[in-house]
Predict the 3D structure of the following.
Amino acid sequence: MWVFGYGSLIWKVDFPFEEKRVGYISGFSRRFWQGSTDHRGVPEKPGRVVTLAEDPKGCVWGVAYKLPVGKEKEVKEYLDFREKGGYRTATVMFYQKDPSEKPFGTLLYIGTCDNPNYLGPAPLEVIAEQICYAVGPSGRNTEYLFELANSIRSLVPEDVDEHLFSLEKLVRDKTGL
């Protein structure tokens, strides 16, 4: 079983895996539209983390992890708990960075618009403001944003995730970080 990470699962890998592959899924765009009241914010002041928005022309780069044989159920239960804040699972095709490698199916977690923590679209300035000041049990929301942007830049230098990098610039400008 493979699991696709497009947010903190890229840079905060706290579960066992046998191998990982860099690649992308299509038909979605990464967006900071999911509220976080359990990791990067609190109920009174939710942070914002990424989810996927359906986008026929979209492409989201990330990392697919192969779960250890015989431990798939255990690791998936852990990930179900970790991603409990309004995420559901779906299976999609994963295309590896090396185009000579065959695509394969992977599980992903997606925060849909009908979950209680979904915040939805907003002007980037509003999202940036929320990220600047949100803090939760897992740390500052700015850390989440910066770690994700740095990871994508490192893994896929050619990726131009406009939403992610524009948000990063706005938050860095506001905070001086």
